[in-house]
Amino acid sequence: MKKDLLDCVRHGKQWTGTLDEGLYEIIYGFEAPDFEADSLYFEFMGRRTGPWDYAPSFAKNRGECLLPHVELEITSALKRKSRVFIPRKTELDKKYFNGRIGFYLDSRKTVTLKLSSSVKNAKWTNVRIERFADFMADYTEKDFKAGQKFWLDKTRIDSIRRNWSSSEWAASLDKTLDDCAGAPPPKNVEEAKVVSGTTSRTGKRYEDSVIFPGNYMSALSLRLLVRPSETDLEQLKRWIDAFADLPYWGFSEDPVGADHDNDLTADFNMLGLAVALSWHREKLGKERAARMEEKIAYQAEQMLKWIIHSRSSWPGVTAQNHAFFGNQTLILAGLLLLGRNKRAIFWLNVGIAAFKRFIDALPPDGSYHEGNGYTAFGMVGLMPSLMLLQQSTGEKFIPDEWLEKHWRFVDTLLPENTEEGFSTDDGTGQPGYLPSLAMWDYCRHSATSDVRRLTGRILYKFFKYNPDHFNYHCILVNFLNMIWAPELNPSDFKPGKASESSSSYFDDCGYFVMNLDPKAKTYFLTGPPQGYKLFEKDQHTYNYGHHHPDAGNILFNYDGKWTLADTGYTWCKLSGEHNVLLVDGQGQHNDGHVWMAPPPFDIKPPQLKIFKTKGLDRAEIDLACYYPSSLGLKSWKRTVCGIRGKGFAVMDDVKCKSDRRLTLSWGSDFPWKKITNGRIPAFENRSGCKILFYGKKEIISIEKCIPVKKYIEVLKDGKPWHALRVNTAEKSKDHRFVTVFRLPGTDAEFDRKILEKLTEK
To answer: Rounded to a whole number, what is the distance in angstroms from the first to the last CA of the chain?
Structure first.
């Protein structure tokens, strides 16, 4: 079959074969020698950003698919397009593209199909068909409890109503809804793309336009449920009618374009309509309810096409928030229309099978596979559907054991002082929806449980140091707060007791965290993207995207200040904007990508080695596998050693095949200032901590970087990342960098002691 199919595609012929019922993937690869790779790049904020999959928001052709696509045609049954995966840098250099396109058969049958590419002179190298196992669950309509209000029962509704006038979450919703009172809905798709900037009276933009409409309708529905108002009801009807009438949800009517009836835009719009219909069917009237059902069913079918045929909701994707949101659309539509639309049980069985795969893929150490700073957004795509499925079936869907590990992980990584946010990996410094989920789990457990203790500590740290956390994505956050924890307020949480352990290691994501004192945490990221388990098991390109080329990155938080900082969510992901090694100015695999393609799947990521003695923690690992072989890097052994109450040191032993210019970066949220320290170069910044360099033949410079970001940072002319660049004075095959970090009040005697420990065999 493999040989015949490839031969047919190469010669532009049809292929015929007999296949059993199920979902099939056509996995392909081709070279496109005439493709213009420069078409994937755009200048933005002084950088050449790319490769982009779709033209970005600042481009004139916003939303246009830039990558090649393939077209699958099955005689008398199907004609669909799917764009290729974002190529790795090495693949793009060769103009090689690969991807998958799928089709579903409801019974055993003979199929005649044809596969073609949008590029001229494509040279096909691989085409094969594989059946996807366990695409669907086997539930029947009798397995579900019909007619329930999403996430709510009478007791919870009474609690929301009773606490509305005293709740801070409700006060925030009231303020937002009143500011948007009477605002007309968008009249067309173009207005919908910018609706969050045109709705409020004050001109405040509450959320991104992708998610604002659905969240706004959900919030209106909630207030209407407990504070009946003809004004709110009429406003809700206007917005429902407008979004039910839009011809498509997203940025492009081209099915290969960005977010065409797919993932984030479609799921949040679906959330708004589904919540309104679940909670207010009778108030909305039969005619409007029927129109909403028609639109919801249409959107479910559109999403199903994406899941079956193409893009990031693909069945094989187990660890991407876009897949969570895409399948959440099926769960919302299926539960809402069960018994009303014969396709509802099909949507549910596809969605349930997907969510079971998502649960199975959660990292065993409690971390989050898209990057630990991204957990806040990922969880809001995962958990609401699991709650709905548990509510409607009575079965256990919520991964309680993993959640308890997750809270332990979050508590360990979260600084005691959160005034500068939660900036690790792809985090933006904001907790997003994480406190909402923490409050939900806090309410479910007894006062003496570990979950209550851990979530209480996490929430105390959030609210004590940054009470304005919920101004970020404030509509959905406060909506979730009210349906999950209406009786809670920020003052309800206690500090609890911090872990007395001097360090913690999470062996799937590879995070090593040292607690140097109650105010100081050092973070050492040592694992592959997605963690060891998924990197080895699920080698699917769409699982990636939000990672950075930052294996070996070291972060340091002192008293809430990111003395060594992560650059967060960027549109140009650079090793040079992380505290890692550069070789001749170049970084790790796919350095500079907008969305990260995975490193080669044949690398063998090593595990961290940890050595503990009384009062001292030491960890070491060789990270050379994360760099392209073309750089000639034989070894980069990074050793981190910390002494509680004093500080830590880092030793970097680098070996190359030939002479290279080697660079280490130490970037901070705050400017560095050179200080006098004899012959040893030394610097400090606002945190009060000092950094000293004991390497030989090195040149140290200060550079102010402006990472390429979106959202509010761009409006404020960027958020600087202040880097100390430590370069070898001349090219070398072999160099040892030695860096010492002192906590405030630590004297020079610490340097001698830590350097001895650092070099011990």
So the answer is: 56
